[in-house]
Write a structure and sequence with these properties.
Blueprint lengths: L2 H21 L5 E7 L9 H9 L13 E4 L2 E5 L13 E7 L2 E6 L17 E7 L4 E6 L2 E2 L8 E2 L4 E6 L4 E7 L12 E9 L2 E9 L4 E6 L4 E6 L1 H4 L7 E4 L2 E4 L4 E6 L5 E6 L4 E6 H5 L7 E5 L7 E3 L4 E5 L4 E5 L1 H8 L11 E6 L7 E6 L4 E6 L2 H4 L13 E7 L9 H5 L14 H19 L1
Antiparallel strand pairs: 1-28, 2-3, 3-4, 4-5, 6-7, 7-10, 8-9, 10-11, 12-13, 13-14, 14-15, 16-17, 18-19, 19-20, 20-21, 22-23, 23-24, 24-25, 26-27, 27-28
Helix pairs in contact: 1-8
Amino acid sequence: MNHRAVLLTCFLCLALTQNEVDSQKFGDVQAVYEWTTLDLDWPSEAVKEEFINNGSFAVDKNVVSGIKVYKNEVYLSIPRWLSTTGIPVSLVKVVKVGSEVKLRPYPDWASQTVGDCQALQYVQSMEIDPNTGRMYVIDVGRNGLFAQSGAQNLCPAKIVVFDLHTDQRVASYDFPDDVVKRDDNFLNDIVLDYVDGQVKYAYITDVNAHSIHVFDFGTKRAWSLNDEASMKAEPDGGIIVINGKNYTFSLGVNGIAMSPNFDYLYYSSIGAYSLYQVPTSTLRNGGSDGIRLVGKKGSQSDGMAFSCKRLYYGALSKNAVCYWDIEKDMRDQNKDISHVTLNTQTQLVKDDQKMQWQDTFAIDEEGYLWFTADRLQLLFTNTMNFTGSEINMRIYKVFINETSYLHGAPGRTNNNTAGQRFGGTLSIINLFWSLFLTVFLSLKRTE
């Protein structure tokens, strides 16, 4: 046996041994942060008092929603949902100030100015490319989407790109009004699509338009896929039962997730049970072919995320996070990814009191799935308790021993090698990559 064979054998043994150890930890969960009300990293106490006194900061209007994690740094969104005032910042980074956890406006205070179309108006979600350290932020451009007084339609919707290594904005792309309506959009979730080793497209759900918007970073063009049949609320899905109470959320397409081989996009509406699949080739070419019902989830869901192996999603009526073991279903059904149906749905974590409304997901580089649990059903029915006697918002991380669909994408997609058909026989490149990630995560945790 030559030295290469010996090295490969040792590598395989180490990977298999580590998998046995990690399988015992799968599903371990911890609450990382908890808040009754949010507090910002203010320039000074005087500024904080001024914002409170003039109504620019109201604790009962600030609730976290989106989450992304990069190099152990946590980024959150605070959507300007219910009011056009009282929410001074919409994108933050979690920081430690002395012994206190604060939310620091990201990248700075000036970038949050309402009415300045160069600044962020309303951030719902974002995506971080771990290969480059760039964060892609979707800005709705509108404030107070659900305010009783009506929304402020201030700016065009846009994608803003930040370099997390320098905390600088490196790009910004406005959506044309004929693609994303300035006065009626509700951009909600975003994923990235790699082609030939680089980010080529972004796909963004629009709850109001029942659409998935496509942005081509190469040509700077945008277009939409609209399919009412699969992107609106279902007759039996608009009422979500949480701990015995009915909440009406007849909302359209919301959560999306990208398959690890970048061949398919998955999506679902909040007011629906159905999970759909559409080929990225359809989205890239501006077509509408190939939309397929994959199956029914056990509950309505908000956000979702694909790791390198499984599709994770919230089960709103169950106060739980579940996952679809797609590889198992493909084996059991003897079908490939384009024909397999949603069957094996497994509960990952659950807590009826502490995990209400699993909003948004993130997968870090150390094998953890992060998510926000923010009790939005209470916020939107004006029953959330901000007096201090209850915890309203929590951030959890769960060990899954997997990385995100984006991890290692440049190498996997260079020269169109991404295919290798996820769910089929793994190529040698993907096999080595999978083994490398396993050992890498092991070494990171033992440092």
